[in-house]
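Q: Hi! First time asking for a complex rather than a single chain. Here are the components, and I think there are three in total. Is that enough to go on?
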Amino acid sequence: MNVLSTGSQALGKTAQPKKRSQWADVWRRLKRNKMAIAGLIIFLLLCTAAITAPLFYNFDTDIVSINIPNRLQPPSAQNWFGTDEMGRDIFARVVWGSRMSLFIGITSAAFALIIGGFFGAIAGYFGKMSDSIIMRVMDIFQAIPGTLLAICIAAALGPSVINLIIALSVSFAPSFARVVRAPILTIREVEYIEAAKAIGAKPRTIIFNHVLPNCLAPIIVHTTLAIAIMILITSGLSFLGLGIQPPMPEWGSLLAGARGHIRDHSYMAFFPGAAIMLTILSLNLLGDGLRDALDPRLK
Amino acid sequence: MDTSSDSNVSNLALEINDLVVEYRTYEGVVHALNGMNIQVETGKTLGLVGETGAGKTTTGLSVLRLVPDPPGIILCGKIKLNGEDILAKTEKEMQKIRGKVVSMIFQDPMTSLNPVMTVEEQIAEVIEHHESITKEQSIKKAREMLELVGIAGTRGNEYPHQFSGGMKQRVVIAIALACSPSLLIADEPTTALDVTIQAQVLEMMKNLREKYKTSMLMITHDLGIVAEICDMVSIVYAGRVVEHGTLEDIFDNTRHPYTEGLFNSLPNLADRKTKLKPIKGLMPDPSNLPAGCPFHPRCGYVLDICNKEKPQKIYRTDKHYTECHLYSSKSMVEGKVIGR
Amino acid sequence: MWKYILKRLLALIPVVAGVILIVYLILNIAPGDPARIALGDEVSAEVLHQWREEHGLNDPILIRYLRYLAGFFTGDFGNSFSPLQTPVFDEIMARFPYTIFLSVVAMVITFVLAFPLGILAAIKQNTWFDSISMFVSLIGVSMPIFWLGMLLLLWFSLGLGWFPSFGADSFAAVVLPAVSLGFSSMASMARTTRSSMLEVVRQDYIRTARAKGIGYGRVIRKHAIRNSLIPTLTIAGIQIGNLLTGTVIVEQVFAWPGIGSLMIQSILARDFPMVLGCMVLFTLIFAIINLIVDLAYAYVDPRIRAQYS
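A: Yes, that's all I need. Here is the structure of the assembled complex.
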């Protein structure tokens, strides 16, 4: 009775060459989103600045050396962002600070993804006992607000870059576990996986060809946004004195240093904060854009 | 033959002439309707038959002026509802027409009802809107409507998720008929339902149509439903009517190769040995329609002219026409061209 | 419904016990001897030992944990490591009202602005109103709250002198901390409200309502808003959590005498019973808020209500 069924055979044939261009499709949709591209460009520029900073500045002479006669100078041609209470160039310190923030943010997100992804994948793929045990533990971790957990771990371990990365990746691993688990759980049940199993595809083929590509979208989006949150928390912890310690420049600790001078030298408080905002903004734009581009439903 | 439509104006519940609707998206312009022509006689039922994407739903939405805008634009054409020009109405006037003069039943009853409102509220809403009665009276009438479509009125204070698909569609029908509209547009009203439920719902719609003397536009891809309920049939392809006629014309004097293809896609119970002959290929991409006759890439009788010129209407009788290069006025009447 | 609430509250007990265990373990891996930190370097081993005995630090960690747990459920959060040895519970209760006050004001700012902003932006999609409010929201979610706090302080306190720059002595004093606390939540909620609204207006039941002849504004009010609340509520729970977490930083910027600043002071002073108390309290509030959000779901969505009863 159904005229529609006539087309389904032909449809099956056309579907295959289309799958190959899935990522080209995502890129095409992303390119159309001007805000997302702006975010991507800003983020890449920040990364470039972070990577190339040592080519322009010497850590010992330009970043941490004290130059009292030149202290607390407002922004000028020499010191674009002015100088701090030790006479150091704030622009150089903000640029150098991007190294810290981006390194910590990206590394912590990577570790959180690996830890959380591992447990999430186990829970999702094997289900039953392993799922309920892992998820109960995750529940307890997630009962603690992530930032507070990170503060707590960082406080216990003491301030250092490594400890900060440990604190952030442990605190955010549960959220990654959820993001990885959910699509695996649902995809296990989806008909086309059943179909792949029915035609005798190996588990490895199923995981790499069917499960993984479909989990990738939420993971990519979550990772992008997690990097943003982790950079925010890093700066927050440093601001509170629990993260990166002076004289090492980090945006949060630069702002903490500026607090004492906010009345007379407010420029000190402006640029490091603007740098944080720009970074988070770029990642948010990119994350939102990726979400839209990866979700063909919204096409 | 143009004069025939003019003389019948008073007799037409719905008349659509040369309607062109486009959806302008980032991906390109989708030509949903390309000169749609439809006539629904008062008290009669017209079946609008075609594959998914042929523009059937857009036709229905155009009559209610609910084509999503953006991206949809009604470019040109005429829509006359009981002789009144719909496209000239203001939004305020349309709000008096929708639900009162013309109602629409949508395809998927699962998503057509608001999940956070009781069903009687949803039925009462349309009554309250068009008739100046109190809330209590409208709820009472809503329950009567529920009874009418075969649901106990006491279930009115339940939510859609408490109903099965078939019952939800009954609720949707109750909403559509609550203000006894003169025209009912039913967009695949039974497609999403189980076969046994389909029959029940269809039977009920038939009865209600008699009771309210409603004219109906039945959008479907199911020729079985057409045979069951329609008086006239328009076969739609790529946003245009390719063949139109009475039920008998279409079923017994099939002319257009596409109509033939639709019939050949149906299993023949009398002779199960005959192979199904599905129409080859797919509906063309409506943002990139083939030149000439849009059906020519799939047509088994394709001629040289088919990819160059758009075919004109050829009439067999007053009511039966097709748009196909295979026919001259003479062969159209004789009908020797295709094998049915 | 009450049965459900009770069930959820009971389910909280193992979660709280688990949270205490995690935080307890974390704080115990901290390097440094709390006794030496509390008493300084110039005391004898005996004094140190006695101090540890007083604070019950000489027992194995599991015993200490169970003892703490037993105490916790009877309202005894232990004593501070500070020389005064104040009971943690008393200190926290003295500070708690300040944090609640600050969070509630911030929450009010968040909700009062976020919903109308998000809904209007969705209805007026692609107009200047939409662009501006979404740009402001984007800035809002990207701004670190301590930076916003510093800027507000600079402009409205030091510059214009409208509000005090620190403390909690007047009602005006809550304005700047609450605004810096609520702004990013507000921005994030407005964005969610907008996108869920845009999702809802595409739904079939909106078309059904329009097909009844009802005007667009009324369809939005009667059909769209309530449905768009459902996904927004999830974010509301998360945002209230963020707001609470934010108090830790905002209270520090504005020297607001709440739990957040107590926790940071205690961390810097390595006063672990106090840190533990603050963490557990935050977690409890967080859990209760999630419960309230779940109940709010049931209020908005009859499908969820049906599951509870």
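A: DSSP finds 13 helices and no strands in chain C. Let me know if you'd like any chain examined more closely.
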